[in-house]
Amino acid sequence: MISVEAFGAEADKWFAANVPSDYDFLMPLTFMEVGTDEQMDFLRDWQKRVYEAGYLGAHWPVEYGGGGLTQAHQDAATRAMRKHQAPIIVNAIGTGWAGPLILDTGTEEQKRNYLPGILSGDDIWCQGFSEPDHGSDLGNAQLKAVRDGDEYVLNGSKIWTTQGNYARYMILLARTNPDAPNKYAGLSFFLAPMDVPGVSTTKIRKLTGEYGFVQTFFEDARIPADTLMGAEGEGWKVAMRTLEYERGARGGQAGGYNISQTDPLEIVGLAKRAIRNGRPALEDPVMRDKLIETIIDAQAMMANRERAKIAPLVSERPHALPLMSKLQFTEYARETGQFALELEGAQAGYYVGEERSREGGYWQRSYLNAFSATIGGGTSQIQRNIIGEHALGLPKTR
Questions:
Q1: Which of 131, 244, 246, 359 is catalytic?
Q2: Alpha carbon of 84 to those of 14, 46, 48, 122, 201: distances in Å?
Q3: How many domains does one find in the chain?
Q4: pLDDT value, residue 398
Q5: Exposure of 248 by Cβ count < 10 A (0-12 exposed, 13-18 middle, 19+ buried)?
Q6: Are residues 76 and 183 in the same domain?
Q7: Is 151 a residue of the active site?
Q8: 111 and 135 share one domain
Q9: Is the full-model pTM beyond 0.85?
Q10: Which residues constitute the domain of residue 54?
Q11: Is residue 396 part of a domain?
């Protein structure tokens, strides 16, 4: 087996030579911003190139399309991606949530059928959890799945379905038993195909003017019964495990990244260029103080990622840092975007496409899009409750 160091060096060389730099369209910063065919086609092709080069799924088993190496090898490749500011890996729900779930708990047939297409990007996946009338109350999902012979018949709708209009499959939470003793017991989890009659999507226009989410409708849509994940009525348990992957509390993801992280040095550069009161913003003591805090926060998150890998340092509360990472990262991205707009001053009012916008409106778009990550996978408020109850052992809130 190739050493991690040698693999990382090869990855660094490959990304240095292959990361594209010229685009004639707005490059999505996150997988939740992919709203045009041009963006999707480009990013799907990019994911396939990364995969075929051996830098995505490097640690997944060879028999399911992976590279058969170790997590450390994949981590080295991901670091090279970040170093060279590569485009995002577009099939985020497949590589980050559905894939690890199938790899850990799926049948042999499910692993062979689904995992290779996830890695290559040939099969885009989406998530069918949220519903229009139930907000964050995932346990109250009402989309119905009724068994009819070798099929389930689906009726209802899901909302905020990222890339739902491009997806071939959906990880779907549906109600199979409306008469169960509690709302959680009546739910089941499916690896549902999207290309069957009765499934349709409607795009949702965001505040940014972009599209990245859809509402998905099921009208007597029939899916095979063998798409059931686990047993009927065990959907809540499977969904909670899926959310552990989404929130970073459980590993096994294929690698890469689906949200571009803000480099603190970009903020430093902006502070040098932006003008406040006739002078560079970097010379303003208040702005300089905030800038130092931003850099410290970034370094702390980086240190926590490394600390989480050292078992003796996290043995007392092993899930604390992984659970914290989602909350920290998403709130940091939002706060950093807000700080960037403060640095721009009055020019922060100009958006993408407007002549007087600074940096092409990059920071305005980054800030507005950052809010979606603070909601997806559980809002920041819910995430704080989870940390308090499951990591710190605090009493459950009412």
A1: 246
A2: 10, 14, 18, 25, 35
A3: 3
A4: 61
A5: buried
A6: no
A7: no
A8: no
A9: yes
A10: 4-123
A11: no
